[in-house]
Each structure stands twice: as C-alpha cells, then as structure tokens.
C-alpha cells in the first residue's frame, strides 16, 4: 500500500478523519483564505460526500473552526491576566483582553469582510461559537464564585450568556453599522451585570 493510501486510510472512517478536516480548514482560515469545500476535499484526498459526512456543510465547518479558535483565544488571554486580578475584576480583565484579541485577529476580520452575512449567522446567532463563549465565561464566573471572590445574582450559565450576547453586539458593532468596535461600552455593561462600578470612561 502506498504512503498516500496509508494517509487516506488513516483519515477515513475514524475520529481522526474529522480532526484532519477541521485542522485543514483551520489552516485555510488562519491564512485568511476562503474555504472551498471541493478544494478541501481534494486536498484531503476524500470525496465531497465523505467531507460533508464528517463535518457537515460549509457553514457548520466554519462554525466549528471559529468555536475552536474562540476557546484557544479565550484560554490564552485568561492565562495572561495577572494573578492579582480576582473576582469581577478578573472577569472584566479577561473579557477585555479577549475582545481586543478577537477584534485584532486578521483571519476574523478577513472572514467578516468577505462574508458578513455568514459571519453574523455563525458568530452572533445561537450555535457552536456562542455556546463555546458562554461556557467559557460561565466557567470563569463559577471559578471566582467558588473561591468566594464573586457574588452572582444569576446562575453562571445564564449570566455568562447575557454577558456574551451583550459583548458580541458591541464587539461586532461595525457589522451593525457602527464605525468601530465598542469594547469599553461592553465592559461597562458587563461591570453593571456583575454589580460593580464601570472600569472605563
């Protein structure tokens, strides 16, 4: 059996198959390149029907890639917040770093400019991206609450979803007709939800 056959066989019919597709799509995304499903199938040495069976349609695949990049960016930004930041201050510091990292991400800018309607559906409507963001914020809220550093007036998942939906509306303000992201406004509103004074003017 040839090396190519070995590689193709390793991809097909296994969990690694889906991982290979998502990894390949992620490489295209990070290169700011459009995602063409036919070209992706050819690149991976599989048929289009197999590709769709593994990862769903194009929009579903893009949502998966964005959800994974969301988690990676959030975890990286959270790790950079100083240990001295605790409670609501920590939550706001993570949110601020996260939103600025997202706003500055060239691949995300390229996708939102190239396909704004698709981006709105994937990033601003219920789906993998929102679910991932909500889970991450809820986990952060839970950690600070469990450590006795933050009082919560709502369950973490409910509060997390409220914070994410509010932040998204301001982070992606340019898609809604505003001249630029309104990150400071989002942080002020998040502070209000957490019961503390605004941190920014």
Automatic annotation (TrEMBL):
<protein>
    <submittedName>
        <fullName>AcrR family transcriptional regulator</fullName>
    </submittedName>
</protein>
<dbReference type="Pfam" id="PF18598">
    <property type="entry name" value="TetR_C_36"/>
</dbReference>
<dbReference type="InterPro" id="IPR041485">
    <property type="entry name" value="TetR_C_36"/>
</dbReference>
<feature type="domain" description="QsdR TetR regulatory C-terminal">
    <location>
        <begin position="86"/>
        <end position="195"/>
    </location>
</feature>
<dbReference type="InterPro" id="IPR009057">
    <property type="entry name" value="Homeodomain-like_sf"/>
</dbReference>
